[in-house]
Design goal:
It is globular and about 85 Å long. The strands form six sheets. It has a seven-stranded mixed sheet, with helices on both faces. A six-stranded mixed sheet has the order 9-8-7-10-11-21, with helices on both faces. By secondary structure, the chain is of the alpha/beta class. The chain has helices spanning 50-67, 72-88, 90-101, 105-125, 163-175, 189-200, 215-224, 237-247, 272-283, 301-316, 336-351, 383-386, 402-410, 425-434, 467-470, and strands at residues 19-20, 23-24, 30-34, 41-46, 132-137, 140-148, 151-155, 178-182, 208-210, 228-234, 253-257, 262-266, 294-300, 355-358, 373-376, 393-399, 414-415, 417-421, 439-442, 457-458, 461-462, 475-483. The protein folds into two domains: 11-258, Aldehyde Dehydrogenase, Chain A, domain 1, CATH 3.40.605; 262-442, Aldehyde Dehydrogenase, Chain A, domain 2. The chain starts with 18 loop residues before the first strand and ends in a 7-residue tail after the last strand.
Amino acid sequence: MGVTIPPLKRSDFLTGQPLVDGAEICAGSTYAVTNPATGKTLANVVKLGAAQTRRAIESNSRAFIDWRKRPAQERARLLHDWLALVRLHRHDLGLLMTAEQGKPLAEALGEVDYAASFIQWFAEEARRVYGEVIPASADRRIVVIRQPVGVVGAITPWNFPAAMITRKVAPALAAGCTVTLKPSELTPMTAFALAKLALEAGIPPGVFNVVCGDAPAIGSVLTSHPDVTKFTFTGSTAIGKLLTAQCAATLKRVSMELGGNAPLLVFDDADLDQAVEGAIASKFRNTGQTCVCANRILVESGIHDRFVEALAARVSAFRVGNGLEGATDQGPLITASALVKVQGHVADAAAQGAQLVTGGKRHEAGDLFFQPTVLTGASPAMRLADEETFGPVAPVFRFETEAEALALANATHSGLAAYAFTRDIDRAWRVSEGLETGMVGLNSGIVSTETAPFGGIKESGLGREGSRHGIEEFLEMKTISVGVRPESPV
């Protein structure tokens, strides 16, 4: 069924060992990490639980005493050294990511670059943590300084095994915090490799730990341990709500980047080619397994048929297969349950009157592959209108007016991302401001960059990642009120 992974220059990236306090944990029970394209075992990973997580947090607490005191310039230099090693091992990291997650190799290499961009950005932001002086009165001055929040617990998902890590860990380390990270049990290898490179770059032991294994036990410790003062999570809304509730007992600062149900609006005056390219970039990246995917494509009647025809022509030509065996556009879904959900959404839509334009079935490439799919006649009553499909299915909804489009787009509890395509400048402003989301891609299917804040409203989360605002999530403000004696009379 094909290769599991080609030989790596860094064969130690395949050891499958968590990293705590600068040392790999080699002993203990293990579980298999498999390549979703082939079903073959990639590595046997040591499975950790509550005790090891507590040990990791305790090492964070010890390391924090020194790390927080390091000059910002020194933390910046160490992050730049980490960045250099990530770039040096770009190809190995891309191969590893494709092997454990399934995305096409070109996308995996692009994600390594994206992950590196966060390290670079926050290495530079480390030196820009400014305070302020507030005028008070003749006998008092008020100074505000910013200090690291402390030990950070972080949980990241399987769909972006590198970028979701550096988007959290780089600003935390730049701010002077220490981190214990739990990556997804499905894709831990990239996390282990990144942690090794951080250690090799000179980031001290205990500053950046990685634990993986018993997810409920690890999550419970990260959300309840009194030494963890900040908790950050990327994943489903349901799990995010649960973890937020667990953090309440110790009043941790919380950042949540949760699920989406992104609408993509195409108006009659849109550039057709640009709209199709944007829909493909948004909907089918990572085989439709992203939180900012265009889950609902809303197209105005006048352009509807031409848009569907052009989109289906492109989608039907996608190359589907193992990303390690040649050029591909679409890889496998991550698990069997993910495939079942995609099948269920397509079947439900068809039962309620949707028409398949292309795709709609399992793909012959392997057990977890699904044909890239376009369907029309989608309606709000269908499951795919209310649930994230997280797969390569593009449902097209028809609308007649701008007001109707906005009402359909906003009819969701999620509010992460949205997209709109129009050449009318007035409509562009009205729609961008009217969409109830944290991010809008206007005439673009991409909203993610290290320079812009990433995050949602409604039930899509709390806080922002990336940009200059991203480091603020890991800083506390301290007010220092300074008494000033009046000048003595001559």
